[in-house]
Every structure is written in C-alpha cells, then in structure tokens.
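Researcher: I'm comparing several assemblies side by side, and this is the next one on my list. It has 875 residues spread over two chains. Same procedure as the others: predict the full complex and return the structure.
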Amino acid sequence: MLHHLEKAIEATNPPLTRRGFLAVTGGAGVGLIVGFSFPRGAKAATGDDQFNPFVMIDSDGIVTVLSKHLDKGQGTATGLATLVAEELDASVEQMRVEHAPAHPEVYKNLLFGVQGTGGSTAIANSFEQYRKAGAAAKAMLVAAAADSWGVPAGEITVANGTITHGSGKSATFGDFAEAASGLEPPAEPTLKTPDQWVYIGKDFPRLDIPNKTMGAPRTYGLDIDVENRLVAVIARPPKFGAVLKSVDATEAKAVRGVVDVRETPVGVAVFAESTWPAIKARDLLVMEWDDSNAETRGSDAILAEFKALAETPGAVAHAADYEAGLAEAETIVEMDYSFPFLAHAPMEPLDITILFDGETATLWTGSQIQTIDQGATAAVLEITPDKVTINTQWAGGSFGRRATTNADYAVEAALLAKIWGEARPIKVVWTREDDIKGGYYRPMYVHKARAGVKDGKITGWHHRIVGQSIFTGTAFESLIVQDGIDHTSVEGIADTTYSIPNMQVELHSPPVGVPPLWWRSVGHTHTAYVMETMMDALAKAAGVDPVEFRLAHLGNDPRKAGVLKLAAEKAGWTEPVGAGRHRGVAVHKSFNSYVAEIAEISMNDGVVKVEKVVAAVDCGIPVNPDNIAGQVEGGLGFGLGAVMRNEITFTDGEVDQANFDTYEPLRIDDMPDVEVHIVPSTEPPTGIGEPGTPPIGPAVANAIGQATGQTPTELPWSKGGLV
Amino acid sequence: MVQLTVNGQTHDIDVDADTPLLWALRDELGMTGTKFGCGLALCGACTVHIDGVAMRSCQTTVEDAEGTEITTIEAIEGKAADAVRAAWQEIQVPQCGYCQSGQIMSATALLVENAKPTDEDIDTAMYGNACRCATYHRIRKAIHRAADLMEA
C-alpha cells in the first residue's frame, strides 16, 4: 500500500545508514531490556531519550517483544516475535508481544522513514532488525551464565528457553536477565544461518489468538473505557463537501445520558455518558446542510464521464509505438471495464479515545501510521508531535482504512477534544453506517484495453485507465504523482513483468469530490483484473492454453512463472476438470510477492459458485508459513466478496449503501475450499497481507469466461446477475 | 432500572428499557468481549446466548433480556465451548479476531444442537456471522475439528 512512498522518501531524505547501536538496560526487578540507541546526531534531531526497547525479558523469563507495526489481523506481531524467538532460542510459551509506543525515529518502518504499517512491508523491513535484537539478548544471557558458572561462553547452549552447560548446569532466561542487563551488548551480534532456524519457515502459533478466543478485555480500541470518558458520535455531512447550515438539537439533548451537542468543523457531535444514548440522540438531530461546495453527482453520471474520457488520449504513463504493434497482429482483442467505489468495512468500525490536558494528548486507537496520527493531532491541538502519546490497540481489521494521509479520524477526535475544552477523555465511536458512508473509498475506475496477438505472442497493447488519483491533494502528491501520473493508478499494468512489446499506457485522473484511499492491494485491485482477463482473452484468440500463453510471456520473470507452474501442477491444470466445473487462472506480482490462483467454479442457472481455489505464493523466505496461508485464504476471500457484489454508489451525491444489508460482505457459504502452496525461497521476505487479493477476481472471471464465453467486465458481478 | 442475569450473576442496571443488551454489556457491565459490528443483526459480532440460544445482542433490548439467562464469550464453557476454543487455536482461525467472539458463540450453539454438523449445516448456522478477514475456510475446518474433539 505505502510502498510507493519508500523510494520517494528515500530520495528526499538520504537513506539512513545508521540503524542504531544495540543497547541494554534493566536491573533489579526489571530484568533485561534490549533495544537500540542512536548516535548523538539523532538525539539532537528527536530531542529525547535515545534508548528504545524492542525485547524485554523479566525475571520470570517472560520475553515481551514490542511490535513497532500495527497488527490488524495480518499476523505481523507474531511475525516479529517469531524473529526474536528464533535468535533467542526461546520457547513459544514464554513469548509475548505488545504494540510499541509511537516514536518517529526509533520505531520507524525502515522502508518508509516514519512509523507506519502498510504496503505489506512489516516483515520485509524488520527482518534483520528484530533478529538482531533477539541475537543480542541471547548473547548477553549466555555471557551472564558463563560468568556465573565460570565456564567459557562457547560451551553454553540455549534451546527452547533453557540455558545449559555440559557440566549439568541449567538455567532459565529469568535467572540471568538481571545479570545480563549489566553487560555490554555485542556490537554486531551473530545471526543464525538458515539451516539453524527452528521457527522461521516452520509454524509458530499466533500469540494473539488465545485472547481473541476469550473475549479478553482491553484488546481493541472500542474496548477501551478510560475513566470518566464521554462517548461522542458525529453527524457528518450527507454529501462530501457539504457544510452545516443549521441544527436543532432540542430533542437530541433531551435523551437521557446526553451531556451536550456541539457544532464542529466536521459535523454535529453528540456527547453522552455512554454509547447508546449518543447513537440514539444523533438520529433526533434536525440538520440543514449547505451543498454549494459538495459533490452532488450520482455515480452513474461519474461513470458516464469516465467512459467518455476513456475515448480520449490521456497522460502517457508508458509510451510505445502501439499502433505499429497492433498493425502486426493477426487478431485484436478489445475490452472495456468498470470498477465501482469500494468501502473497506473492517469488522471493527473506527473508534478512537483522546485525552487532551492542554499540554499533552493521549490516543487509544488501532493507529496504522503513528507518525502521521501524532503530527496531525498535534497540529490541531497546537502542540508538538512528541507531546502526543499513542497507545496502539489491536485493530479489528483495516484493509487500508486506518491509514489516511490526513489522519482523518484522529483529527476529528482532536477537534472534539479542543472544542470540549476540559481535560476529559472523549471516545469517538463510528457506527457501521458512518463507516460505509464515510468516504475514503477505493475509487471508481474505467479501463479500455486493446491488444493484438500473432503466432501465440502479443504484438502490441494500448491501455487507457480513468480514475481518481489517490495521492493528488495529499501531502505526498509531489513525491508520488509525477508528470500527471499517480503510479498507484497504473501499477500492475505500466510496470507489468510480462514481456509485452509496444505497450502504451495512458491515464486520466479526473477530480471527484469523494475522498479516495488505498484498499487492500491498492491499484492492483483493478489492474490485475484487467491484465489477467485480457491475457485469457488473448490466449483464446491465439488458440493457446492460458497457462502456456502466460508462460510464453514470462521469460523475464522466473518467480512469477514459478508460482504459475506450481499452482497449475497442484490444481491438475492439464487434467480435465470435473463435470459441471470450470477453471480459470490468474497470476500477479504485487508488493514484491507473486501469487497465482486457479479457481474452480460451478454454475447453476447462470449463478456462479466458487468451489475451490488452489493458490501458489512466493513471498521470499516464508517466516510463518501457516500465517502466509491464512493471509492468502483471507486475502482472496476479501477480494472475492468485493468482485461479487460490493459497490458504493451515489444518488445526487449521497451514498446509497448504509450497512451490511446493502454492502454485504462475503459470507461463509460463498467461501471456496482453499489450498495454499508456498514456494521455498532464500530471497528476503516480501509482502503477504495484500498479494493474495488481486488474482482472485480475474481467476474466477476467467472461469466464468470458460463456462459462458462471456468474461464479466462490469463490476460487481451482481450487476450482471451472475451472483 | 433493569435486572439482568449475565453469566450467572444478577446486575441492576440503570438504563432506558430500549437500550440494546449489547451496550448494556459493554458500557454498563464492562464486558467488552461481545462486539459491536453493525447494530442491525447483520454481522453476528454481538452474538450471546440467551437461555442457551444464540441471539444478536444488538437487536435484543434489556427489557426483553430481563428474566433470561445470558451467557457471554467471557464465561461460555462446557464440552462444546471448550472444544470450539481448542479447535480455534489448533486451526489458528482468528486474524483480526474482532468477529470471533460471535463466531465462537454461534459455533458453540450449533455443536450443542448438532454434534456432527455437515458443511451445509455449518453454512446455515454460521451464515449470519460475517468475517471481513474471510477466515471462513478455517472456521468450517475448526467446527469439524471441534466435533471430533467432542467425540474423543
């Protein structure tokens, strides 16, 4: 998601070569705490204490890893704990994981330069850092044991949380945690070689699952009830860009439990002693809105405008002599596509608690880009970002929604805290309707693609994309949008690794008054669909098997070819499919990972049922294979629900959908059987939260094409009666 | 004033009669294991057992819940519940986990009624429990596993 920022940020801030020195603290009652310290220059830049814990070992031997990344279900926290446990040779039972505090320097995503989670980068950027912290802790425990036992450190072994010596001496981590804290950390701890790994590449259970099966308190942001807190719900404008003209809150204020109703720059806020009175009272507000600057178009009108634009030349994202290429072709394939706005709809609607005492602010929320949330909150409250403490909570999903470049919901909370004036905790709760109607959608896109094929090879390709730019108008516009091209609008096509000669890609980015946002796999949500259904159509035109046709164009991308071959083999692609069944394939690279999916469907009275999906994934060294499988299973389920029946539409600027009846998620009876195969790899680990999502739509669409001769090109498929 | 019996304990709660049981549990009793997902009985995140039956607490008022035995995720136990929890951990079902309280309550109710459910039985019983992480594949697997554990 945010991986586009990496290069841009590195270009403006030279890559930081210093990643901090290992350092320790601890002592009586505290145990051993291993982290990183930064040189004086960094201290001057950040102005605060430079010791930053990553691993804490207490006198009971409990190892607590601090996750600098938000775990919103993708398993990152356990992934980081796995890296530490590996180098520590800890037991699974003694491992714990918590979210780290917010700090832009010490807990930064090494690929972003700020603290934040996204773009499927969490394990990729932490792979060395967290292993080093674990290795340093182990080296010091061993040194402390050697000292105490009077034996050479080299004779001591550590396995499964136990420190032993051949003489029969044995100890736990807790026994030496305090003594170890008085030692000098190794300058450069030795990391294990892959053949020594006991957890990486094996299965390490998720550390968050026990709590999540017990309904444990204080897990998610919505569970946080700071003493004396008020609950606020906000009546936001019914049309994006509308402003409040008037409000009559007489009836709302009469609801028992309502404390006050205030006008705010983001809408009318109802403050109550608890959640239900706030929700109930909001329905009783009588409001008038000024629509002069609002987006008042319907989505049909926006779509018609996009389709007209698709007929005109756009800004060139990738230039080529496509006309010459198309002229060479024996057969031309031309397809038009449309993709709707999509809401993220995480199971936990947004929520955030804020306490502002006039000088410092504290947030409790599933913060995804802590550095932006700190900065934006501070700006509203007119304090400095270091005065904003964030208690990052486990998040009930995000799919991109919690990572806004303007920290939209943290800013709302800060505005409410400022308006309230007294130092009282305020918990802002979003209802499902607020979430579905709240904007920050995957934008609507239209594609127009024309490609030619001759003798089994593509000869030329002309591609036009129309859709709102995600980055234009954000603080990152100048970094990401270059020469009128927002890379996230064309990724997956303009940078395809298929060998396609004479391919021109053009883009129109018309402004729409609806806030856009990345949505699990960003541009790949639509580009993979077009690319991979086009590849099938071209294969058909060429009279070549769809897998063979793709492989013929993957000479430059052996890893993509590798997952495609593996999925085909495991799915029995060359064998006949069962009676009444149809197969479709898609393969796509995103976030430096490769996923191929082969879908098997049945059709009853024209209605599609996805029976089974066989997936193959190459994401480099697989740190937690079972979690990788889970992310591919869930990622493809998330994508499937969307292509089947999800869309956000507008009538005169107002969102038509409101809750899970009109924006119905994938249900259990929609979910196919899934098989995930992981390619063994020695490459550095890459993303897994998002890459499972892009291939599912086109894989199933290609199966529908096989079944009916018609590949669906207007999304969602419910429009065409297929589901 | 409303009197609720939750997990065997009786509580007097001073809220309006139309207050959903969900918000009474969460805000008044501090039992936050029961989740708010939609408010309209469309997602199942708020599922509790009322007199042993899986019900959506967001659409059950405290008035209607008075005089019943309410069981929540914090206290559900017994052969089926224990098997479900064990299977959920063994199969590593939860991702974000926010819907899982409701999934576990629904799955437990299913297994109490039907110790050996088929895929179709599972789809029918669990249809109303949405999971945006789409852990359904593992939910199905874990319910079968829980059934095996109960039998063992």
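Model: For your comparison table: The mean pLDDT of chain B is 98.
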